[in-house]
Design goal:
7-stranded mixed sheet, 4-stranded antiparallel sheet, about 120 residues, about 0% helix, 11 strands, mainly beta
Length: about 120
């Protein structure tokens, strides 16, 4: 059975950067749009970003525009989320998932097949 595995989370000071990775095992990411989601304590899970299967379309929620960048390397079966200028309000568990919507248009992702998540904590 295939898996999505996130990594790269950790503790970082405000203004710092992290790069999250989402690696697929036992299946090929090439044909899938991938979304990044986050869930902070006491809050609903939200779609942060997504990238289409070709990489030609990307979406960002307003709160991360200009700070986060999503990319993919299909040769490595990996999708990345580069997070810069991190703020305490970015603290959450971050998940990647296949995107049922295909990341088409300017719509947030809808997760289908999920990874286990990685914790990001932004604190001084």
């Amino acid at each position: 059975q295939g898996q999505l595995v996130e990594s790269g989370g950790g503790l970082v000071q405000p203004g710092g950067s992290l790069r999250l990775s989402c690696v697929a095992s036992r299946f090929t990411l090439d044909y899938y749009a991938i979304g990044w989601f986050r869930q902070a304590p006491g809050k609903e899970r939200e779609g942060v970003s997504c990238i289409s299967s070709s990489g030609g379309n990307k979406y960002y929620v307003d709160s991360v525009k200009g700070r986060f960048t999503i990319s993919r390397d299909n040769a490595k079966n990996t999708v990345y989320l580069q997070m810069n200028s991190l703020k305490p309000e970015d603290t959450a568990v971050y998940y990647c998932a296949t995107d049922l919507r295909g990341c088409l248009g300017d719509y947030p992702p809808v997760g289908d097949y999920w990874g286990q998540g990685t914790q990001v904590t932004v604190s001084s």
